[in-house]
Amino acid sequence: MKDTAKDAGQDAGAAGREPAGPLGVAVVGAGYWGPNLVRNFQSSPEFRLRWLCDLDEDRARKVLGGYSTVQATSDYAAVLADPAVDAVAVATPAGTHLDVALAALRAGKHVLVEKPLAATYEDGLRLVNEAEERGLTLMCDHTYCYTPAVGRIREMVRSGELGDIQFFDSVRINLGLVQKDVDVLWDLAPHDLSVLDFILPDHVRPVAVAAHGADPIGAGQSCVAYLTLQLNNGAIAHVHVNWLSPTKVRTTMVGGSKRTLVWDDLNPTQRVAVFDRGVDLTAPQEIGADERRDMLVSYRSGDMVAPALGEKEALRSMVEEFSGAIRNGRPALTDGRAGLQVLDILEAASRSLEFRGAVVGLRTGR
Amino acid sequence: MKDTAKDAGQDAGAAGREPAGPLGVAVVGAGYWGPNLVRNFQSSPEFRLRWLCDLDEDRARKVLGGYSTVQATSDYAAVLADPAVDAVAVATPAGTHLDVALAALRAGKHVLVEKPLAATYEDGLRLVNEAEERGLTLMCDHTYCYTPAVGRIREMVRSGELGDIQFFDSVRINLGLVQKDVDVLWDLAPHDLSVLDFILPDHVRPVAVAAHGADPIGAGQSCVAYLTLQLNNGAIAHVHVNWLSPTKVRTTMVGGSKRTLVWDDLNPTQRVAVFDRGVDLTAPQEIGADERRDMLVSYRSGDMVAPALGEKEALRSMVEEFSGAIRNGRPALTDGRAGLQVLDILEAASRSLEFRGAVVGLRTGR
Amino acid sequence: MKDTAKDAGQDAGAAGREPAGPLGVAVVGAGYWGPNLVRNFQSSPEFRLRWLCDLDEDRARKVLGGYSTVQATSDYAAVLADPAVDAVAVATPAGTHLDVALAALRAGKHVLVEKPLAATYEDGLRLVNEAEERGLTLMCDHTYCYTPAVGRIREMVRSGELGDIQFFDSVRINLGLVQKDVDVLWDLAPHDLSVLDFILPDHVRPVAVAAHGADPIGAGQSCVAYLTLQLNNGAIAHVHVNWLSPTKVRTTMVGGSKRTLVWDDLNPTQRVAVFDRGVDLTAPQEIGADERRDMLVSYRSGDMVAPALGEKEALRSMVEEFSGAIRNGRPALTDGRAGLQVLDILEAASRSLEFRGAVVGLRTGR
Amino acid sequence: MKDTAKDAGQDAGAAGREPAGPLGVAVVGAGYWGPNLVRNFQSSPEFRLRWLCDLDEDRARKVLGGYSTVQATSDYAAVLADPAVDAVAVATPAGTHLDVALAALRAGKHVLVEKPLAATYEDGLRLVNEAEERGLTLMCDHTYCYTPAVGRIREMVRSGELGDIQFFDSVRINLGLVQKDVDVLWDLAPHDLSVLDFILPDHVRPVAVAAHGADPIGAGQSCVAYLTLQLNNGAIAHVHVNWLSPTKVRTTMVGGSKRTLVWDDLNPTQRVAVFDRGVDLTAPQEIGADERRDMLVSYRSGDMVAPALGEKEALRSMVEEFSGAIRNGRPALTDGRAGLQVLDILEAASRSLEFRGAVVGLRTGR
Questions:
Q1: For the segment A156-200, what is each residue's pLDDT rounded down to a tens digit?
Q2: Chain D: nearest CA to B68, how far in angstroms?
Q3: Residue B303: which of C277, C301, C306 has the nearest Cβ?
Q4: Which pTM value belongs to this model?
Q5: Are C155 and C258 in a shared domain?
Q6: Is A322 found in the same domain as A193?
Q7: Do A303 and D302 touch (CB under 8 A)?
Q8: Which residue, C78, C306, C279, C252, is CA-closest to C164?
Q9: What 8-state DSSP symbol labels residue B22?
Q10: D366: in domain
């Protein structure tokens, strides 16, 4: 994911390969997430929803409801064979992402995949390579990146408004469904990690990970986990995920040398608060660390600003980005490589968990 | 700290050695914490404040104000020589605790020490041994343990009302004074660790620690730190301390198999909330972990109760406990051994920080 | 609205007049509220949505979207002539409710009307009478009454769990659309007044109203208003509505002699909090008021409980109630008479506003 | 209270009549409020506390504690006869204010009176006149006016930062001590009314009052009350006071044509929030009200700013203002006339309560 791609925002020149009218799209998977995609593709003028495909055709039919003209099917091959289908959105379990998405790419379809991109980094890489070779769009549905709040945070971080990033602390806890095949890290942390990847300036990257977890209820995998990331600029990032908390918390703090912001996704009247206060060493930067250490410390204390944010639904923006990327032949803001970055960290974290918290380096120390 | 001691609560038999009237007390240190001790000793009928001692006698005088009959002095020897002084309260920098407290014990005075008990585990142990040999009270001012909230939490945890402890998560962050000689861990975490020690049942103890920190502002020591503790029952405890946060957070969650509670010290109208919800595996406990893993999971969802708590000032209760321990010759609720437990964890955490998060075992794996 | 009707809850005996399959329904009005009704009728197995009717057929078509099999029309007569239409839901401006609903009733259709029931008490009464004479269901869409929170509050109040009702205080303020033809009282207060009517025990009723308002922006009608209601048991009810507040508040407090509850509709994690505290006169009830006045007052202070509430969408429950009322020939929980009660208060409040806050008696001093 | 006085802020020229050293002061009344005055006079370098006087000398002694050099007495005449006493602070029940304060003024002492200034407007006026005739300082302890929050709000309102004031809404509710001789209005509303008086620009004044109350517990006086004030610029002010609420709320909203602010005194991390949003009629001001009414309405939506506020204790600032007023011979920010304004409104409100909410005009329609 190159910076130019990331910031492409406006889609200047169209690639010209795609139909001028709405793009035909099929959603695969009528489980938890599929219905949200169905709803948003239906309300977008950029898409024409052709199919909802699920192994259980009845389930697909039920999701569409009794008033829909969209076709339900369990025949994925028929979907891929339909020339009116330009793109496929995959909302099946993570373990099937490789097969479902690969088949779509091989059928020449653009692909949107629910997070995580795939069950392993290796699988994810195969998808990325396949899409790049074929010149097709591969996009990850990192939904939170398309909320107005995260969009604004990215802007503030990358423009330097916050100063140098010093810490990132994210808490995502609630009473969760204890799952059979993924632990709490793979279930919840992709949200925080995709946001971290999304907002960081290009030159600041995580380089290593340590993870601690516990399974105090005997579920067979971690139900509580703490993830610590070292960044290449000396900053620290931390993610707390927990399925056992009776209260829901979704709070992310991004500390910068100039300002610090708090994103509280459960506080609709004040989702983002930017604090014009911070700690600063009075010492000039030229002198050595030892001298700085001895110097007095001064404190700034200033106003807090809660910027006005739009109310646009994240999935709607995500769907628009998907069409923009397809039509302009440019990487999506959350393209396959963004999905790979998340997988890299998740795999390293799993390895760290196995080795009781050992620090594990990342492959993508870009 | 034995259970019987910890729960001594009521002081049945008086030791008889102490004066029937108020205990004479001297406060040493007129800095940040000393004035609070002065105020609380003055308002307690159990004590008669004799001296406020500080290297800087003017500072002591200023703390006492222009209307006080208490004596200010910089002559610690004179304080110790005063037979009207039964007890000494130490509120000097941690590095001086050993000398100041040891001198007091050797002069036959009971001693109260501000947290942390000493600068090192070794120093703390010397104090504990000295006090035990002399039959004197050595108490740690773990103030938070004396709040009505923590008292109630201890009751709920130790009575089994919460069920088995599954996780403990504490966040203590704010814009803090970056200090020259201690890092954020030694500055803030003693509060959380003393509370953890205080509320846990006797058979549940931390056994190992890992710590991650960062100094993104070049202060010379960690300004952000994360501490993960393994408990001997498979539970996990975690402490997040941060000097760089513009918002103040003081929230501790204690997760149990029956109930989970949240203590938010900054929410006076609802400091403690007890949630009657949790995750539970439906499987009976007799069957193996593998089978349990495959079973369905059920969710409980119930009411939340915010118990009525008294409004008694913590320092007032602490001062009362000090007099109770002295008069009855019993260990204080937060005695020297409680202080040692905190030092054990802090030292292990410092070692872990040096080795980039390696897990370090505790001495006091009681 | 008789008590037996209000509590009918379960629909014991079916009236037998209605089709066994889904009820055919038409929605009239494709503006702000209509789409919500469309969505909920579509997802209810009890109904089959036949038409969406709007003077602007394009607007209706747009609301239905590009995938719907429902018919859009601007021909209301055709809708009423369709024998497959058993019921009509009216979501047009209040000024048109009388004509639209009356036509539907005269065509033998059951009718659901968005709040307020009509533009005047007189109009509302005509609708009620028409429906009663024809034995048709006339129901008001008092949506908040169908939230899980209000359902629970009603239960607690009417079962006596709260004790005698002492005060009701409701605040509904936000940056609102300043409207051309209704003031803030008619726009927002129907929500609070319908909830008040819904939760009160049958023997406790408002008897008089005073209203104060202001139009500090020169909008031509009150943009801020305060409504005070006297209840027949000496209690007081108060409603604060305001279009000019930049913050959104939706809080209702119901004070009882045993418990007091706070409903905060914007706090999803704790919508209802029940406080087991109250003020109580120690004096026995037998002695006279004068003596009671002189007696000391004691204070109770107890726990707070936030009961677990379901997450069912209010409109879904409302739609179910509509079908239940139709199929069983019983008054709906929020029937036409409930709508009349709200109109009675609104009209009296308008009169009070004209006379600078004079107290105005209600017709329905039941 | 003239504007020049109100804004005197800095005390340029000293009156020269007063001692250069600390002012001798006596506190009368050792009940609920007296101890706070004792503490603050003691810590102020501007004052020397000479006496604490109470009918019950033991109570006075107890308040001073066992370490104080201040004299306790029950002999008020001796206090007034002491030439070292320059000023008297009155913290006795409201019914005694006239006698206690008048005696002090006649003895040539400056006087500070706890709110309300006196039991009646008539009594208050006698005090004001007496002080003016003698050239003595008469000040009301309207404590909230000296909080950093209210100071900042006054600044914002009077500088025009908020635009024209459109509404003022204050809620002050909690479980209160039901009192024998004053109702909830006289007990709690003085706080809100003194703040209103303090922050309003000089040309904006309340002109009439209506009050509604209820005594649902048979206490003999209103325990819940609502006060509506008409201002001379068409704005509305409203105060809700309630002794029966189990939750404590202290929230004041000040709506202006440019900005609206919310002061939440119980939210220490965000006491004042200023919203850069409001409703505005797009119509230019030149055209008539009728045309404006028909025009579309536009909405602004902007950022929210929570200004940094100091943490200075209000009583400390109040005590400083008292000494400033005495030493400079200028009216205090909350002088006797400010106290009169509050009494005027309270008396009119009581009359309105008697007449079931009738609108009552104010004397001080300045």
A1: 999 999 999 999 999 999 887 777 778 999 999 999 999 999 999
A2: 5
A3: C306
A4: 0.90
A5: yes
A6: no
A7: no
A8: C279
A9: P
A10: no
